[in-house]
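Subject: for your reference before the review

Hello V.,

The reviewers asked for a structural picture of the protein, and I figured it would be easier to keep everything in one thread rather than splitting it across files. Below is the amino acid sequence we used in the manuscript, unchanged from the supplementary table.
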Amino acid sequence: MDISLTRHNVRTEELLFSAPMEIQIEDTVHISNGREPRKILKCSGKIAVSSKYVSDKTVTIEGTANISIIYLDEQNCLCNFEHSSFFSKTLEGNVDLTGADVSVKVTDEKFYAKLLSDCSVSINIEAGLEVSVTRTYDKEMLCDIDIKNIEKLRGVAESTMPMAYGEKNLVIEEEISIGASQPSALCLIRSNAVAHIEDTKIMGGKVMVKGMIKIYVLYQTVEGTRPQSFEESFPFSQLIDTQGIGDNCKCDSFVKILFCELSPRTTGDDEIRSFIASIKLAVSVKAYCEDEIPTIIDAYSTCGGYAFKKDKLAFKKIRESFCEKFIAKKSLEFTDGAIGSVIDMWCETKCSSSKFEDKKLKIMGTILVNLLAYDCDGNPECYERPIDFEYSYMPQMEYKDPNVVYNITVANCSYTITGANTVVVAAEPQVSVTIYDNLKYDVIVDVVKDENNCIVEPRGSSIVLYFAETGERVWDIARKYNSSVEEIKVLNAVKEDVLCEPKKFIIPTK
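And here is what came back from the structure prediction:
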């Protein structure tokens, strides 16, 4: 008798390679903008990965470390100097990585600057990266067996199937202007660009991502008065080709700012009334489809002659996805007279981790508060203070093997000077969380003829009396006696698959 099997194509994602990577950069830069540095107040920056590619068993990561230095010149004026250092790192894997997707997460960034005697600055950068390489592929699963005298226990495997991954870089140039009521700029002190996504749509196998970019600028005025600031926002959009997805798929989208450079634009009176912002974005999308895959959990032949191969299949299922804001508040202490007035304040997430404890999801981390201020003598200073936070969430269900993917950004931060040496800072982190359940299923993956157990022709039937307990499955009873589930149900007038009360069964056997 021929074996008739029906198979179903499923798409799954396999982790091929995962490893940490350390970046160390030492560089010396010369400040040649006409404003000689007297004292460095703050050295900060951001690691931006610009390209990721695989070749055979190697992974290459390229990018830039974008450094921003706030310093005082000889006239005690606040100034800014920016520099970018290129890096390239290669990791060796142990499997063929051709055609795989690479994701990189920056885990820690440390920037140090030391002023040298010739208007040069020695820069030291340390950063950690987490590199993951995955491959999406199609796999066949057995979903039906059409052979006489084969008993099948059907099931459903829940899965969030990865469908496609796409990434594209986008360069935007916009002119941003100082408000008409504000004084002209002498030089830039600090700038910050934030991008967020407002809409993601799947259209004919492509994904349209739309969002907004918000730029904050702090500058020194021509008059030498207190530094001024302004903000400006403008939209962006990007179309990303992702083959193999349909309109019924779901899509996660992400945006990162790789670099943001501001160039002053002068008027006819040599006044700086605007800046040209050159911004490079990395927009990425990950599409997936929710699916319930028909499976055969167990099978046996009532007449023998077949062998059933079992295997354990693993899938990921998205159970919960949410985005929430919370408040992290702390009173920061300073020495007497250190804070006369605050010029500027900004916050950034430095490190974080997650764990499940007492059935709760907990995300812990540190927010670094940067405070640019005048002391009581009118001298500018920059201070750093950490705020530790813990976010707690009660999941809507219990997980046996959860996997948490999260991202934390600081949406807003504010301060209140409460005393001669205290400032209360309230940061508003925003946490975006997706909780996956790692599901494993024991299923029948193949059926073959068993030559060691020839098919037996039906012989005279007999019956067995069986006393079943509450909670027993009819399937287990039928399998024990190599009988038919349907025959047992009909003969004993049973409709349920699991018994609600004890019952005496008449079991037909062969």
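For the response letter, the relevant points are probably these. Residues 13-136 form one domain. The chain has a mean pLDDT of 90.

Happy to draft the paragraph if you're swamped.

O.
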